[in-house]
C-alpha cells in the first residue's frame, strides 16, 4: 500500500480518535454541567423549602401566641367589690344609692374612671381618682329609678343602664384629671362593665345589708377626705419652749448689728 494511503489512514484514524476523545470530553462536560445544575437546583429547592418552613413556623407561632393571649384572662389592676354588679334599692321615682369597693392590686399607682350609659340620671362620687399600691376606697353611685308604666313594683325589671370602670397606670403621685384617659388611650384598660340589680328595701337580704354597710363606709371616707390635713405646728423642745426660727434669727441679726455700732 502506498505510503500516502497509509499516512491518510493513520491521519484519519488519529482524527477519528481525536474526534471521539473530544466528543467524550464534551459529553462528560455536559454530564458534569447537568449534574451541577441538578445539584444547584436541588439546593435551591431545599433552600426555598427551608425558607417556607421557617416562615410558616413564624406565622404559626404568632398565631398561637395571639390565640393564647386572647384566651387568657386580662390581668386586672383593680379589685372590685361587688365584682360585676351594682345593687340599688328599688324605690321608683326616687334617687337611690349604691356602693362599690375599689382596691389597687398593682405595684404602681393606678387611676380609675367611671362611665355610664345614662349620665343624665346617674353620677358617681368620686367619678375618678388615683390609688397608690394597695390603697382602696368605697365609691358611691347615684341613680334615679324611673317609675314603672303600670305603677306596679317590678323588682325583676331589666335596667338598660350600665356602668364601666376603666383603669390607667400612672407614674407616682399626681393630681387626677379625667383628660389623662384621653391622652393615653392605648394604655387604658376596661376593668369591668357593671350591671344594675334592684333589691327590695323592705326585704332584708345579705346583699342589702352589705350595701348599707358599704354606704356607711363611703360616707365615713368622704368626711375624712373633707378634713384639712393636721398641722404639725411649731417645734417644741425641752420644757415646752416654742421656738420661732424667724424671730430667733432676727434677734441674732439685731444683736450683731448692735455690736457693730458699739464698736464704731
Automatic annotation (TrEMBL):
GO cellular component, one term: endoplasmic reticulum membrane
Signal peptide: none
Residue ranges annotated for the MSP domain, each copy included: 77-199
UniProt-listed Gene3D superfamilies: Immunoglobulins
GO biological process: endoplasmic reticulum membrane organization; endoplasmic reticulum-plasma membrane tethering
InterPro entries: Ig-like_fold, MSP_dom, PapD-like_sf, VAP
Annotated Pfam families: Motile_Sperm (PF00635)
Region of interest called Disordered, as start-end residue ranges on this chain: 1-49
Family: Belongs to the VAMP-associated protein (VAP) (TC 9.B.17) family.
Protein name stated in the entry: VESICLE-ASSOCIATED MEMBRANE-PROTEIN-ASSOCIATED PROTEIN-RELATED
Taxonomic lineage from the root: Eukaryota, Viridiplantae, Streptophyta, Embryophyta, Tracheophyta
Amino acid at each position: 500500500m502506498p505510503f500516502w494511503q497509509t499516512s491518510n489512514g493513520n491521519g484519519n484514524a488519529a482524527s477519528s480518535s481525536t474526534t471521539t476523545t473530544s466528543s467524550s470530553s464534551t459529553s462528560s462536560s455536559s454530564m458534569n454541567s447537568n449534574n451541577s445544575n441538578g445539584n444547584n437546583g436541588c439546593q435551591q429547592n431545599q433552600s426555598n423549602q427551608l425558607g417556607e418552613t421557617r416562615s410558616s413556623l413564624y406565622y404559626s407561632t404568632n398565631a398561637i401566641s395571639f390565640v393564647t393571649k386572647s384566651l387568657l384572662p386580662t390581668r386586672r389592676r383593680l379589685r372590685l367589690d361587688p365584682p360585676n354588679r351594682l345593687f340599688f334599692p328599688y324605690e321608683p321615682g326616687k334617687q337611690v344609692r349604691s356602693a362599690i369597693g375599689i382596691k389597687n392590686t398593682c405595684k404602681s399607682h393606678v387611676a380609675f374612671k367611671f362611665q355610664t350609659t345614662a349620665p343624665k340620671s346617674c353620677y358617681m362620687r368620686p367619678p375618678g381618682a388615683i390609688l397608690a399600691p394597695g390603697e382602696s376606697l368605697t365609691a358611691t353611685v347615684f341613680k334615679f329609678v324611673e317609675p314603672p308604666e303600670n305603677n306596679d313594683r317590678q323588682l325583676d325589671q331589666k335596667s338598660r343602664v350600665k356602668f364601666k370602670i376603666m383603669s390607667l397606670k400612672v407614674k407616682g403621685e399626681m393630681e387626677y384629671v379625667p383628660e389623662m384617659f384621653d391622652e393615653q388611650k392605648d394604655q387604658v384598660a376596661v376593668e369591668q362593665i357593671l350591671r344594675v340589680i334592684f333589691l327590695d328595701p323592705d326585704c332584708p337580704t345579705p346583699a342589702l345589708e352589705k350595701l348599707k354597710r358599704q354606704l356607711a363606709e363611703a360616707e365615713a371616707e368622704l368626711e375624712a377626705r373633707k378634713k384639712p390635713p393636721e398641722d404639725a405646728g411649731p417645734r417644741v423642745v425641752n420644757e415646752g419652749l416654742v421656738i420661732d426660727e424667724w424671730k430667733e434669727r432676727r434677734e441674732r441679726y439685731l444683736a450683731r448689728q448692735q455690736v457693730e455700732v458699739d464698736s464704731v
